[in-house]
Amino acid sequence: MHEDGNGGGRQGESRASGNGVNQPQFLALERELTVLFRRARANQGEMAREVHPDLESSAYGLLVRLGESGGQRATDLAAYVGVGKATMSRQLRALEELGLVAREPDPADGRAWLVTLTPEGQERVTRVREARRARYARRLGDWDPREVAELARLLHELNRGMEK
């Protein structure tokens, strides 16, 4: 018997197999998510340029978040996106210069500021998001609507699980 007590093989292999990571469904999941994430990154860059030619692709998600959630503090946005305060400040300054966001005093705390979409920012983000949903509708037009709903539900569960 080997020192690791697993009766053979390398230590990492037995743990990986025991966790199921080498099972076909997890191999297929990894492969499909890799393709999906690669396409999503490319699409995010395209959507950012549709909002504004000078918009960084990483800032597109901030605009979507503000459009969905309304005004937010820069620190909350930084935490949501997973970046530091300096990076967030730089991105917000660039978005302000493009006329897509504005800062206004936080009514709950006069010392803090809320970042909001400008009317121009809201209009541009809405237009791009509607176009993206239209693309999804065209590409998945031959799917049963229940399958689309199930895909959305499963992706929601995956996203919730990734937050843990």
Q: Describe it for me?
A:
This protein has helices at 11-19, 24-51, 57-69, 74-81, 85-97, 119-139, 145-163, and strands at residues 101-106, 109-117. By secondary structure, it is mainly α. The protein is globular, with a radius of gyration of 21 Å.
List keywords for this structure.
single chain, 164 residues, mainly alpha, two-stranded antiparallel ribbon
Quickly describe the structure.
The chain is mainly alpha-helical and 164 residues long. The chain has helices spanning 11-19, 24-51, 57-69, 74-81, 85-97, 119-139, 145-163; strands at residues 101-106, 109-117. The chain has a two-stranded antiparallel sheet with strand order 1-2.
Helix content: 55-70%
Radius of gyration: 21 Å
What are the segments in which pLDDT stays under 50 over at least 5 consecutive residues? 1-16
Terminal Cα separation, in Å? Answer: 38 Å
Structural class: mainly alpha
Looking at the structure, what is the overall shape?
globular
Average pLDDT confidence is: 87
Please report which band the strand proportion falls in: under 5%, 5-15%, 15-25%, 25-35%, 35-45% or over 45%: 5-15%
Topology at a glance:
Blueprint: H1 11-19, H2 24-51, H3 57-69, H4 74-81, H5 85-97, E1 101-106, E2 109-117, H6 119-139, H7 145-163
Antiparallel strand pairs: 1-2
Helix pairs in contact: 2-3, 3-6, 4-5
